Amino acid sequence: MALFLFLILVAVVLGIIGAVAEGLFYLLIIGIVVFVADLVLFGMRRSRRSRRHFVR
Fold first, then answer.
1. What angle do CA 2, 25, 33 make, to 5 degrees?
2. How far is Cα 35 from Cα 17, in angstroms, rounded to an integer?
3. Residue 35: inside a domain, yes or no?
4. Does a structural domain hold residue 55?
5. Residue-level pLDDT at 43
6. Is residue 40 part of a domain?
7. How many CB atoms lie within 10 A of CB 11?
8. Which pairs from 39-42 meet CB under 8 Å and 24+ separation?
């Protein structure tokens, strides 16, 4: 969970810098890519946990 929150923070910071600073639009794109990759990683980890079957 800490990795998820850290990557969200990195994506937000890169997005803000990319949107505000002139000529650094590529940082905005990198921020968006990191954010999407983080959501995919989180979704994969969450779906892997839900597939466990409990032994009775």
1. 35
2. 15
3. yes
4. no
5. 86
6. yes
7. 20
8. 41/4, 41/7, 42/4
Residue 53 lies in a domain: no
* Domain that includes residue 7, residue range: 2-48
Q: pLDDT tens across 37-51, in order? A: 888 988 888 776 666
Question: What is the structure's pLDDT at 50?
Answer: 60
Q: Tell me, what DSSP letter sits at residue 1?
A: -
Q: How many domains does the chain have?
A: 1
Q: Is the pLDDT of residue 31 over 70?
A: yes
Q: Position of tokens 């921020």? A: 31
Q: Which residue has the higher pLDDT, 49 or 11?
A: 11
DSSP 2-52: HHHHHHHHHHHHHHHHHHHSTT-HHHHHHHHHHHHHHHHHHHHHHHHHHT-
